[in-house]
Design brief:
four-stranded mixed β-sheet; 16% strand; alpha+beta; 6 strands; Glutaredoxin
Length: 182
């Protein structure tokens, strides 16, 4: 059975990184963007990283410009933005597509392992994003692909996807799920 550890990805500095290097860690894999309404989630992702990294948590950020062109800069622009504005020191990877035919293999794997289950429309942000996509890009809601920036996947120490959290879920709301795996 394939796991996330069978894949590799290009780091934000252009180096090839085997995801098997993260064996034994609990992972949050997230697609990110610097100019999105959800961009402040970087702050809480960094808080989670600071709180749990010594217990085996790693956060892997994958910038993408596929949603409203909200990540227009170069890889170095992204890295600088994240460090200056949010103090991000968890691993970042090269900008890549995370949906459709050109999707990074990491995200093809993640979305197959954890299908889209809808937004929580009892929450204002879930209702808003669902309405926006229903109106502007209804075909996006009909498959398991990434719907927007800051979709988060929780992966156990063996490299299996445990849970998918849509953009509208705040990172700190993932704490009990993270703690259960640590």
């Amino acid at each position: 059975m394939t796991t996330l550890y069978d894949l590799q990805a290009e780091t934000i500095r252009g180096e090839n990184k085997a995801l098997s290097d993260y064996k034994g860690k609990v992972l949050i894999v997230v697609n990110t963007a610097s100019k999105c309404g959800f961009t402040p989630q970087y702050s809480d992702l960094q808080k989670l990283y600071d709180e749990y990294k010594d217990q085996g948590l790693e956060i892997l950020g994958f910038p993408s410009n596929q949603f409203g062109e909200q990540e227009p800069g170069t890889n170095s622009d992204v890295q600088e933005f994240c460090q200056i504005n949010y103090g991000v020191n968890f691993p970042l990877f090269a900008k890549s597509d995370v949906r459709d035919e050109t999707a990074n293999p990491v995200f093809r794997y993640l979305t197959e392992a954890a299908p889209f289950e809808g937004f929580d429309t009892t929450q204002p942000s879930g209702k808003m994003l669902n309405s926006f996509l229903s109106e502007k890009m209804p075909h996006w809601l009909q498959d398991d692909s990434i719907k927007w920036n800051f979709t988060k996947f929780l992966v156990d120490r063996e490299g299996h996807v445990v849970k998918r959290f849509e953009s509208t879920v705040e990172p700190l709301d993932m704490k009990s799920d993270i703690e259960a795996l640590l």
